[in-house]
């Protein structure tokens, strides 16, 4: 595989030949991590060489991308003088999805190369911001400092250039972060609590983006009880627990943002929370010894976590009564960090049934 890519790098038109594309496609969709690393490294080196050639042609010989603004039109194949540039763009777009998946494969042993590659193609202007931002936001939750640092750097660049394109994909990024950490971590409550704070710092100066994100965030906490599978319930529990654990550590800029969160959580508690609690009460009264409490248990943990998050925000920002809010929306917050009391599935938390019983006492 390494030899194939080396030959193609010397004769770039071979990259677009059917036999070579067939081999690359097969290996990128396969299960061999070693093959994927070799291919990413080979394409990465090819792109770097082409960038240096482009810099020389543009009159910037001896300089690299960090020192000069690259002619992105050239790399998108808009100039007939540069026949390899269209090949570069085609390779990047064709294998974007599998390489983004590699970025969250592990905590750095195999994924680090893919993250470096992502940073490079974002700088070149090849990466579709809307497609890659969920992975970038997920990588901000990495436990490895240099991976987090790279992800935040990529995020800042994308936000500064493509804010309106990426702000609708942030929730997808949060959910991907939860899947990423749940896959690699033994407990979401032991993860980096500063995650949301660091994410927030990137977008802090954009009022419109923040308002949009907080409105989307509270909507993402809603769920349907009917037809909910165990897998869906487990993810909802993980998602709410992860976000509830990190949001209280972030100092929000204005009370309007806090109000959106508190009122949105209130609506979830009044709808999904009350409905779930009522369903649990019915099942508790039926005393069916064979009833599987897992789905209700996971969802109950999600609701209990939202309940704690709401109370934590009220205490941290000293939220006033509804009638006093309008004139306070634009004011800066007075924040006092308050520890949030969350718990996950554990022997100390009790059985799934006992967690459900706790929900009924809290919500009803």
- The gross shape turns out to be globular
- Mean pLDDT across every amino acid position: 89
Give the biggest beta sheet: none
Helix content: 55-70%
Radius of gyration: 24 Å
Based on secondary structure, the structural category is mainly alpha
Helix-strand pattern: HHHHHHHHHHHHHHHH
Write the layout of secondary structure elements.
Blueprint: H1 2-10, H2 18-28, H3 33-57, H4 72-75, H5 85-94, H6 96-103, H7 112-124, H8 129-139, H9 145-166, H10 170-184, H11 195-203, H12 207-220, H13 230-246, H14 255-286, H15 294-317, H16 352-363
Helix pairs in contact: 1-3, 3-5, 3-7, 6-7, 7-9, 8-9, 8-10, 9-11, 10-13, 12-14, 13-15, 14-15, 14-16, 15-16
Overview of this structure, please?
- Helix content is 65%, strand content 0%.
- The protein has 16 helices and no strands.
- Helix 12 runs parallel beside helix 14.
- The mean pLDDT is 89.
Question: What characteristics describe this protein?
Answer:
364 residues, mainly alpha, 16 helices
